[in-house]
């Protein structure tokens, strides 16, 4: 077997905020294990996250001689909004246009004399699971490739279960008036608590092109050398066990941000407002509601007013992330209204926050969240109770697990009403049961990521797996061992 330093991994996240946020600490872990890493951005996001290519390359070289950043065009016009309403356009452009640039770059990086700078040739690709073309192209070029999914194992399992749901007649819903609380039995291990409303949001519209896309790239993970998930066995053991037989191998290696907390470049496409930490310093312990609906959620002005009225009625100080574009052109007016309604001393509004630092701050009592997987595991690590208002895709399943499985908070999906917001925020802030469950889950997850924990052991196994693949350079079959979770 070659030495670890001979393994050179190309890490390629889908160019959206949450996926980059998840895969940067993964890259940091690979570096810490002695591997070389090329982290592949889109040109658009590289400019937003780190400035000019030369500046990021210099920063990478100074942080580690085994790290570099590269970028390719995503195929969209410079002025394309790249927002949630046009996410299918981004995925299609990546598949049809960015894939051409990716193939060309990877072909150069696998040649010993093709990449310059004395860097070793790429010997393995870890590509975002929602970009199956990246796995296929790598294998065609003789480079072994792994699929990395940035969402939860329970969501991956729900997507994989689409054929069973169709066979049982649980999809499609017969009409818009169908009872969303009707139980769903076609997702293994979730028969006792899953409802129609808890399935990924695309399931509510079976002509939604994103549903077939999501199923397609999830099933495709079975053809990759392995599936990598940013999760812990203590959180999703049963889902992992149901996924494993359908993959060549599965690695549960998270939460990655807790395993590898040292920053590796910037993942944020907005400037984080550190001033909110000073504001939190001035608040009492567990007195603040932290509100962030993630990097893609958009809300109407009416929904904003319902959230605001409920937060004000709850009576707690709140820190609210209202990023540009989240409430359309009304953001500036919305910020002013929030501050006036709550009072200057009770509301602090920012465009973007250093979320992990916020969640571990002593002043934060609960988290009103969209239940994106990054946010869910970040709250889990810190033991913070949640109120979940999922927006789309995997967030629907995640929020059900928060409320019905882990019991670390409340699931507020499909409701945007001030009285409900007030009631649920109060309950999350005041419930000893939620806090005890959140703290117990945090303790379990911290054990998973500590030395000797399940996630740490899985990451070491993954590094060995990559080293083995790199030795063969993907040209011979690699036997895999099924993992029992």
Automatic annotation (TrEMBL):
It comes from the Eukaryota. InterPro entries: UDP_glucos_trans, UDP_glycos_trans_CS. It holds the Pfam family UDPGT. SUPFAM superfamilies: UDP-Glycosyltransferase/glycogen phosphorylase. GO terms for molecular function: quercetin 3-O-glucosyltransferase activity; quercetin 7-O-glucosyltransferase activity. Its EC number is 2.4.1.-. Keywords: Glycosyltransferase, Transferase. It is an enzyme of class 2 (transferase). PANTHER family: GLUCOSYL/GLUCURONOSYL TRANSFERASES, GLYCOSYLTRANSFERASE. Belongs to the UDP-glycosyltransferase family. This is Glycosyltransferase. It comes from Leersia perrieri.
């Amino acid at each position: 077997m070659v030495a670890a330093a001979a393994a050179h991994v190309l890490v390629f996240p889908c160019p959206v905020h949450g996926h980059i946020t998840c895969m940067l600490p993964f890259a940091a872990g690979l570096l810490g294990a002695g591997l070389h890493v090329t982290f592949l951005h889109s040109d658009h996001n590289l400019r937003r996250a780190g400035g000019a290519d030369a500046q990021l390359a210099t920063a990478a070289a100074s942080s580690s001689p085994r790290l570099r950043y590269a970028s390719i065009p995503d195929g969209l016009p410079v002025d394309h909004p790249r927002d949630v309403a046009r996410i299918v356009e981004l995925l299609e452009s990546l598949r049809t246009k960015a894939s051409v640039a990716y193939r060309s770059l990877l072909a150069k990086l696998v040649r010993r004399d093709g990449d310059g700078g004395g860097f070793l040739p790429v010997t393995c690709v870890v590509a975002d699971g929602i970009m199956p073309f990246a796995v296929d192209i790598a294998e065609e070029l003789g480079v072994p490739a792994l699929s990395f999914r940035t969402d939860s194992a329970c969501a991956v399992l729900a997507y994989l279960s689409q054929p069973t749901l169709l066979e049982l007649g649980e999809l499609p819903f017969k009409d818009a008036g169908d009872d969303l609380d009707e139980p769903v039995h076609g997702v293994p291990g979730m028969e006792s608590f899953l409802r129609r409303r808890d399935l990924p949001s695309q399931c509510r519209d079976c002509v939604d092109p994103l549903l077939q896309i999501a199923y397609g790239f999830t099933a495709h993970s079975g053809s990759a050398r392995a599936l990598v998930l940013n999760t812990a066995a203590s959180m999703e053991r049963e889902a992992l066990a149901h996924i494993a037989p359908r993959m060549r191998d599965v690695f549960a290696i998270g939460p990655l941000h807790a395993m590898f907390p040292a920053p590796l470049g910037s993942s944020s496409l907005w400037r984080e407002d550190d001033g909110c930490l000073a504001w939190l310093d001035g608040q009492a312990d567990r007195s603040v509601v932290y509100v962030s609906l993630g990097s893609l959620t958009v809300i109407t002005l009416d929904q904003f007013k319902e959230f605001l009225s409920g937060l004000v009625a709850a009576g707690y100080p709140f820190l609210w992330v209202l990023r540009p574009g989240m409430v359309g052109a009304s953001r500036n007016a919305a910020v002013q209204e929030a501050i006036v309604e709550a009072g200057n001393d009770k509301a602090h509004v920012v465009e973007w926050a250093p979320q992990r630092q916020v969640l571990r701050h002593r002043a934060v009592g609960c988290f009103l969240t969209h239940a994106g997987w990054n946010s869910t595991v970040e709250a889990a690590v810190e033991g913070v109770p949640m109120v979940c208002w999922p927006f789309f895709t995997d967030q629907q399943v995640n929020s059900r697990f928060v409320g019905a499985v882990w019991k670390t908070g409340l699931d507020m999906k499909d409701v945007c009403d001030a009285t409900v917001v007030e009631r649920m925020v109060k309950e999350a802030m005041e419930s000893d049961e939620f806090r005890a469950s959140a703290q117990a889950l945090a303790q379990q997850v911290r054990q998973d990521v500590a030395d000797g924990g399940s996630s740490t052991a899985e990451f070491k196994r993954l590094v060995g797996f990559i080293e083995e693949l790199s030795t063969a350079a993907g040209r011979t079959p690699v036997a895999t061992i099924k993992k029992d979770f």
